[in-house]
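Researcher: I'd like a candidate sequence for this fold, 432 residues long. If you have to choose between options at a position, lean toward the conservative one.
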């Protein structure tokens, strides 16, 4: 029995089969992921090298040219392009489609590893182009005018960034702009000369003191406890009280009466860079005299030189490397990148929902989405859907005009959307 005859004799069975196909098509369509690009790995790799302080010509001659000569020998290379800028060398290699980019990346790294580069240049970084590395959203965050400088950056790094990175599908959130607080130590050259200290010695003491040290383990009542010495500074006052050297108390009295500084009577802390060693012998640069520290007696002991005695310690803002504004107001920009397997539209919707929660929780916070890749995708899908409906309506109208038969037109009108819905069944379980 032919299929048409079977369908005519068993209309209920055919109707049930059609309903099953429609149901599966609707389920498949609802689970269909939306994205701008399919999962592809473009056959492109880049070699990036920095050479601070070098001009574009020096970068070309000393960095780009040797690396190009080595990279061009990689098997499968189709095209090579280089960009030499002040302090930066970028070499872009294009391969044939189908090339295994993981193997190509390893081959490039092996080739350029043997290239001698000038001192001061960084180790070349080999990167393969991945569309998922591009941000899918760009959010500009600002606050009310009465916000203190730097507070917005602190709020972004402490609250906004962790909350957005916690959204499912978000790989990372990069922060651009804003002001970052830092501690500045402004040394007084006259005071350093007076106490016989140097900038390097003071910097070395600060670096060595701002650390936490493990002290081993302590076993007590069958319990093993880990011991640590917390040496990191917790406040500006702690840093100001840091001992950077020692000097005889007589020197402080002498210089306290507006007398000229006595360089030969200064001492540094034991085992610390400075003018005097732990044994009290002089180590004054430029002098060959060696002997006990002048004035160092039991009646005239050494007194500590603290950082506040030779420097001004204050909290300030670091020099901004980038400035972002929204509607003319200072702001902080968040670049949101998704995970490789995540769906762009799903991630964007979750991020929008989280931003709405943050705006309601934090008073005065304004978050404006300046770029949203998902918005373009949603508008494109909406345009395609509208065109499909319009095309179907026009097709039915043409059939009515030419066939002049309502029954035949209804049959064709039902078969057109049914065939479209049926195609979605093929995507069941295969969506990205």
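Model: Candidate sequence:
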């Amino acid at each position: 029995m032919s299929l048409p005859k079977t369908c005519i004799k068993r209309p209920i069975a055919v109707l049930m089969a059609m309903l099953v196909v429609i149901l599966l098509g609707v389920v498949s369509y609802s689970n269909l992921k939306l994205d701008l690009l399919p999962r592809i790995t473009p056959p492109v790799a880049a070699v990036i090298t920095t050479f601070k302080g070098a001009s574009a010509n020096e970068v070309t001659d000393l960095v780009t040219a040797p690396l190009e000569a080595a990279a061009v020998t990689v098997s499968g290379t189709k095209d090579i392009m280089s960009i030499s800028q002040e302090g930066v060398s970028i070499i872009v290699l294009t391969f044939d489609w189908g090339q295994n980019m993981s193997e190509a990346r390893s081959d490039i790294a092996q080739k350029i590893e043997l290239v001698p580069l000038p001192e001061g240049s960084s180790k070349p970084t080999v990167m393969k182009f991945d569309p998922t590395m591009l941000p899918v959203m760009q959010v500009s965050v600002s606050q009310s005018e009465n916000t203190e400088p730097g507070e917005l950056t602190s709020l972004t790094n402490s609250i906004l960034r962790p909350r957005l990175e916690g959204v499912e599908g978000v790989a990372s959130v990069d922060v651009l702009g804003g002001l970052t607080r830092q501690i500045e130590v402004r040394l007084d050259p006259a005071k350093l000369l007076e106490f016989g200290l140097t900038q390097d010695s003071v910097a070395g003491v600060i670096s060595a003191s701002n650390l936490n040290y493990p002290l081993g383990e302590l076993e007590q009542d069958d319990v093993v406890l880990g011991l640590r010495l917390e040496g990191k500074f917790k406040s500006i006052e702690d840093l100001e009280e840091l001992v950077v050297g020692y000097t005889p108390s007589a020197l402080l009295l002498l210089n306290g009466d507006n007398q000229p500084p006595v360089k030969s009577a200064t001492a540094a802390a034991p085992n610390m860079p400075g003018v005097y060693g732990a044994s009290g012998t002089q180590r004054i640069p430029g002098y060959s005299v060696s002997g006990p520290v002048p004035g160092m007696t039991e009646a005239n002991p050494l007194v500590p030189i603290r950082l506040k005695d030779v420097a001004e310690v204050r909290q300030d803002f670091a020099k901004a490397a980038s400035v972002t504004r929204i509607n003319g107001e200072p702001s902080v920009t968040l670049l949101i990148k998704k995970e490789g397997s995540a769906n762009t539209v799903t991630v964007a919707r979750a991020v929008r929902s989280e931003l709405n929660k943050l705006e309601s929780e934090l008073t005065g916070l304004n978050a404006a989405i300046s770029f949203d890749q998902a918005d373009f995708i949603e508008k494109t899908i909406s345009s395609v859907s509208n065109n499909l409906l319009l095309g179907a309506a026009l097709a039915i109208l043409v059939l009515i005009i030419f066939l002049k038969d309502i029954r035949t037109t209804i049959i064709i009108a039902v078969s057109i959307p049914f065939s479209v819905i049926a195609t979605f069944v093929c995507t069941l379980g295969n969506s990205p």
